[in-house]
Design a protein that fits this description.
- By secondary structure, the chain is mainly alpha-helical.
- It has one domain (3-63, 71-163).
- It contains five helices and three strands.
- It has a three-stranded antiparallel β-sheet with strand order 1-2-3, with helices on one face.
- A hairpin with a 3-residue loop joins strand 1 (99-103) and strand 2.
- The chain is elongated and about 70 Å long.
Length: 174
């Protein structure tokens, strides 16, 4: 794998791992807000991934000669996309469309921009914050993982991986 793709791939994997760790922490009601540092990194990674994808000739994307895209990679990408939608709507439902906020006199509430949905206990506030972070990290980890998948596809389809490619025999050759 060329160095430029390798660095992009490793950066995507690192982002995926960090966001996954923060995402898992939300299931034990720990809201790890420093993960927000990875949002700008995502805006750096994806343009570079798109630049790499743009370099692949269109005919190579669907060609079996330049290495087939593994079925596990296709299935993983499809599952990640399904997860991001399920996570989004589930987190919105759990927080009732609102966000946790501190009110005057050190009270906690779940509120929208117009009204207070309900008041929260400190434990409920911590849980609502964790759900809010889960919503963000669910998106971040999926986008970083998809960037890693796209980088792997770039490597498969640009030629250097062609030496290791195994081509299935066609029906005509039999």
């Amino acid at each position: 794998m060329p160095t430029s793709l390798r660095l992009l791939f490793l950066t995507s994997l690192f982002g995926t791992a960090a966001c996954t760790a923060a995402h898992v922490l939300t299931f034990v009601d720990i809201a790890f807000y420093p993960i927000l540092i990875f949002v700008p990194l995502l805006f750096l990674v994806w343009p570079l991934v798109l630049w790499q994808l743009r370099r692949i000739p269109r005919k190579n994307i669907f060609s079996e000669i330049f290495g087939p895209i593994p079925n596990a990679l296709k299935l993983g990408a499809a599952l990640l996309l399904a997860y991001v939608f399920i996570n989004f709507f589930l987190c919105l439902r759990l927080n009732e469309g609102g966000e946790p906020a501190r009110l005057a006199e050190n009270k906690f509430a779940l509120k929208t921009s117009e009204k207070i949905i309900r008041e929260l206990t400190p434990e409920g506030f911590r849980h609502a914050q964790a759900i809010q972070v889960r919503l963000l990290t669910g998106h971040l980890l999926v986008f970083f993982a998809l960037a890693a998948c796209a980088t792997h596809i770039c490597w498969l389809k640009t030629g250097p991986a062609m030496a290791d490619a195994k081509i299935a025999p066609s029906e005509d050759a039999r």
